[in-house]
Design goal:
single chain; three-stranded parallel sheet; two-stranded parallel ribbon; binds coenzyme A
């Protein structure tokens, strides 16, 4: 039996096949998943918020219980306005743990109602990161298998236009 709505927040610059794998598995467990595109102040994004929301909506459209939106400001303030108090995050490797623990603890201190749940990323995706994908594409490489095709196309357009690819 499925229960509960969860918020799956991230900067998703870009949304990867690893993120998609979490959604595929979580959609079997939770009643509803709201993918919430937020801003990580330590990151400068390549894709605009609108581009990220629309690309994520496109690649998750086969999941009827998944919605996509963006939020401004603190996650804990955004979550106060939603129908859930639960955050879902993926955990790839040991080094993610410290950062995730810090974020979950800070969120809990700011809003006692908030609960954070973690899903372990499947091993074939544990080496993927959004910045790695951007680096590969900007140097003319292929990110096939790391991101959905439509997202790879958008990144190529932004990071490595045809003229540049011809030179490489
Ligand atoms: N598969 C593959 N990669 C994954 C993954 C998975 N299942 N899960 C995470 N990642 C990777 C991403 O590719 C990304 O790589 P990058 O660091 O190279 O960009 C990294 O892990 C995490 O990025 P992402 O999943 O996009 O989330 P984030 O950590 O950038 O998101 C926010 C952080 C937006 C949730 C957080 O900054 C936030 O809440 N911001 C709002 C302001 C706020 O409340 N701040 C206080 C927080 S305590």
């Amino acid at each position: 039996m499925k229960g509960k709505t969860v918020i799956y927040p991230g900067s998703f610059d870009p949304f990867t096949n690893g993120h998609l794998n979490i959604i595929a598995r979580a959609s079997e467990i939770f009643e509803k998943i709201i993918i919430s595109v937020g801003h990580n102040t330590s990151k400068k994004t390549t894709l605009s918020t609108e581009e990220r929301v629309s690309l994520i909506a496109e690649v998750t459209k086969s999941y009827p219980n998944v919605e996509v939106e963006s939020f401004e400001g603190l996650l804990v303030d955004y979550i106060r306005k939603k129908e859930t108090n639960t955050i879902l995050r993926g955990m790839r490797c040991h080094s993610d743990f410290e950062y995730e623990l810090q974020m979950a603890t800070a969120n809990k201190l700011m809003n006692e109602e908030v609960e954070t749940l973690f899903m372990v990323t499947e091993s074939q995706f544990s080496h993927i990161s959004s910045s790695l994908i951007k680096e590969i594409i900007s140097l003319g490489g292929s990110a096939k298998g790391f991101v959905p095709a439509v997202i790879e196309e958008k990144l190529i357009e932004k990071l490595c236009p045809a003229e540049e690819r011809r030179k490489q």
